[in-house]
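TICKET #2291
ISSUE: user wants both folds in one file
ATTACHMENT 1:
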Amino acid sequence: LHPVKPMNTTATKIASSSLGTATIISENLINETAMKKYNPSDPAFAYAQLTHDELIQLVLKQKETISKKEFQVRELEDYIDNLLVRVMEETPNILRVPAQVGKKAGKM
């Protein structure tokens, strides 16, 4: 067995700083590779340019829009249900379709 010489402190600093630089370079390469995956014609290309925080804000805005639309759909469904009930009570003849001779149900 041979005795191990301790590393020089300046050599350690150089090694750690070059390691940090290597990490930054590899992260940049990974980011560039991820961005190059998308064609400009691909709809995902626009989102690849956004930061994580921007993507979160976009998702939150879209969730809000969806919940507003779901509320509007529920209101319209309730309106249609109430309208149909009124028509059935007051003038149900409107909903009757006269049977046509020569045609079977389900065919158009």
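ATTACHMENT 2:
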Amino acid sequence: MGWVQGVMPSGEIKRFGHSKNPNELTYFDLGEFLREKQRMGVSQRLEGASSICDLADRRIRREVGDLSQLEWDSYADAVLAAKNAVDSSGRNIIHQFAEFHDMFSNEAHGSPKFLCWHRWFIFYWESALRVFNPLVTLPYWDSARDAANPRGAQVFTETRAGSGENGTNVLNGKFKNWNVTFAQPHSVKRFLDESILVENSSKIDALLNNSSGTCEFMRLFEAIHGFVHLFVRRWSLPRALNLPRGEMTQIQVSPNDLVFFLHQYVVSTTWRKIEKLNKGVSQFIVSSWR
């Protein structure tokens, strides 16, 4: 069932394809994967349809707190299997997605394209995981739902993405001591800084309904969205005092922390709200992945 092949450093040829044993899939190249998706017409479907899926590729995303343990474990196991797959340079899937995010940092941040670009990014992350488990979908963390007590959110528990605060590694769960290689080998750190305000959904919806246009809302939304990154990672003080920092507000490496992908769901839902309000999103469509 393979449909994209690549040559490993040893010279062995590996192919993409769905397998009953995802650990058998040891090769993954993000560039090849994206080009293949474009050849299959995914780009046109994303741009031309009001929904990014059809009945043959239906994806229902659910909040991490609403998942059964089996459902969460299916997602986590797909991530772990994907992490073991590398490209011809030995970069695993986490490294490749983090590096790709870094490559497009100027285009994807501080720009009206923020929502659209990240909507695509998490769609392709989810699609990549479906190489390893074709039934998996990306869960999400609704930080607005936990705004009153984000530190107590279920996402930061042993049964989900793992606990960890005040600069520790991920302490437990399937992602315990989560190690990454981009931009250099290290363990992901988390802080859960209670001094950072996490906004509730009412504030976000009010901004959307009251902003004068899409550009104004995009600018304000990106700032609010970024507060959650600051909460997970810590405010800028550590840099000034030369203290350790987490991943989430460093654009170059933020996808190293898997909470990044769980948090980005709000990008898709907010984009859909803008479409429904007819605030003119077509001018912000990203036409290609270079």
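RESOLUTION: both attachments delivered.
EXTRA DETAIL ON ATTACHMENT 2: The chain has one domain: 5-284.
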